[in-house]
Amino acid sequence: MSTLVFIHGWSVTNTATYGQMPQRLQQQAAAQGLSLALRDIWLSEYVSFDDAVTMADLVRAFDHALRDLHLLEPSVACITHSTGGPIVREWLRAQRDKPGSFSTIRLTHLVMLAPANFGSALAQLGKGVISRIKAWFNGVEPGQRILDWLQLGSPESLSLNLDRIHSADPASRGQFLFVLIGDRPDRSLYDHLNSYTGEDGSDGVVRLAAANLNAQHAVLSTQAGRGNLVDPLSLFLSRGPRCAFKLLAGIAHSGEDHGILASAAPATIDAIVRCLAVRSPADYAAVCDAFAQENAARDADKVELEPAGPFAPRVHIHDPRSLLILRLTDEAGEPLTGAGFLLTAGPQASPDLLPPGFLIDRQANPRQRSTVSLFLNYALLAGDARVPDPRNPRKTLRDAVIAHRPYGANVQPVDLTGLVHHALASTAPGEDLLTALGPHQTTVLDVVLPRKIHEGLFRLTQHLAPEDFRHLPPGDVIG
Predict the structure, then answer these.
(1) Does residue 152 contact residue 124 with C-beta atoms inside 8 Å?
(2) pLDDT score of 125
(3) What angle do CA 357, 363, 365 make, to 5 degrees?
(4) At 116, phi and psi to the nearest 5?
(5) CA-CA to 298 of 20 to 30 Å: which in 23, 412, 421, 474?
(6) Spatial separation of the C-alpha atoms in residues 365 and 169, rounded to whole Å
(7) Distance from C-alpha of 191 to C-alpha of 199, rounded to nearest angstrom
(8) What is the pTM of this model?
(9) Is residue 404 domain-shared with residue 283, that is, in the same domain?
(10) How far apart are CA 41 and CA 26, in angstroms?
(11) Residue 322 CA to chain centroid, in angstroms?
(12) 64 is a domain residue
């Protein structure tokens, strides 16, 4: 097969981070008939812990390093961890958009282990806090510019992911992408000062939905009305190309015992070999189907009993979650800073019908305050069967949950009056936001309101005598 390049995650300072993964993978690949010699394996050493370094800098340096290999066969496969996944994806986009500036080396397989494709909730906490989390860093301060890219809802990550959603399927041209991620944090690495490190629905650093490239772009928009008190919002939905996505039971983001890279667990090795064995779009579709079935089996067995010493074990119900990245703007692209966004449920469009516990977390992007990431419990919104206690199936951990569809939204701008203003808006009857969500998936939702411009903003008059027009009536809305 082609040359295999391992690419580590952010703020790594030693190739010990790869553990026994390269050697064990080579052994397993050989046992299954894949030609993968140690001389074909390269380990990356890149610097991300310098505040001057940007994602674009790493992409250019990665391209240069690949050129220096002087490959006889101009193709590579990559296995990445964490931030390594977005680096290679940004390189693929640069190859496409700037063909004269980047190499023509072809990527055949990209196997991403716990990639922060849509970012990480931890990235917003700042350098000082993050550097204390020993599961992520090793004695260095993280680079601020890469940290900015990794914040949930960052313009850079959204640009990359929306580009994928609206682009052609790479599998059709023989380029195969895979996402493998552990299904829970390593509880021994929990940071009591930061609950994100033990968050269900994540591997302790990256949320499952934020790793998954099976993503959607939804738009709620309306036509500007002249006299509407409440503008109706219609839903338009685009789904990205299918991506092979697999959950690895009991695997976490970091750590020698349970980390997806360093532990080199047999389940991880087996999944990687299955990915590297893909040779055609038909093979890829078969792996996608198989991974989906295995994920469904994992989701059905979703109760974790965490030992708690002499006390009763802590119960974790690993429901599928969804990440909703919300952007509020108007038709001119102006951010609707301060606007209220309220989810509703049922034909009555009432927020009181939303299931308790459906909203797990929310973060506003610090550089784009009108971009907010909502972490939602998909199972509670979609409805879920009774969850029995595995210790005694007659006992119930959670009663059955009934969905209260359709789910909608109300938007309340702060500027409801003036020569230029915005109006209240609500999803139109018949629209259901649940259709835009998916289990373990991310949806980018753009809410676009019309600008209400009154004719009094610009008038022509034939009154030649001087006239004060500071207090004239605004007139009707244009359009």
Answers:
(1) yes
(2) 76
(3) 160
(4) -90, 60
(5) 23
(6) 29
(7) 11
(8) 0.93
(9) no
(10) 9
(11) 9
(12) yes
Question: CA 205 to CA 116: how far, in whole Å?
Answer: 9
Please give the DSSP secondary-structure letter assigned to residue 115: -
Strand partners for 232? 426
Taking the C-alpha atoms of residue 267 and residue 260, their distance in angstroms, rounded to an integer, is 10
**Are 308 and 326 contained in the same domain?**
no
Q: How many CB atoms lie within 10 A of CB 443?
A: 23
In 3-state terms, what secondary structure has residue 175? coil
The whole-angstrom separation of Cα 33 and Cα 21 is 18
- For the chain, give the number of residues: 479
The b/e string for 252-284 (b: 16+ C-beta within 10 A; e otherwise) is bbbbeebbbbbbbbebbbebbbbbbebeeeeeb
Across the chain, mean pLDDT equals 91
Give me the domain span that covers residue 377: 319-453
Domain total in the chain:
2
Q: Report if residue 442 sits inside a domain.
A: yes
**Residue 262: pLDDT above 50?**
yes
pLDDT at 135 (0 to 100): 40
Tell me how far apart the alpha carbons of residues 84 and 111 are, in angstroms, rounded to a whole number.
10
Q: Give the DSSP per-residue string, 302-358.
A: -EEEEEETTEEEEEEE---EEEEEEEEEETTS-B-TT-EEEEEETTTTBGGGSPTT-
Q: Sign of the CA dihedral 138, 140, 141, 143? A: negative
- The residue type of 137 is F
Per-residue pLDDT of 102-148, as tens digits, reads 999 999 999 999 999 999 998 887 655 555 554 444 444 567 899 99
Last residue of a domain, one of 273, 289, 315: 315
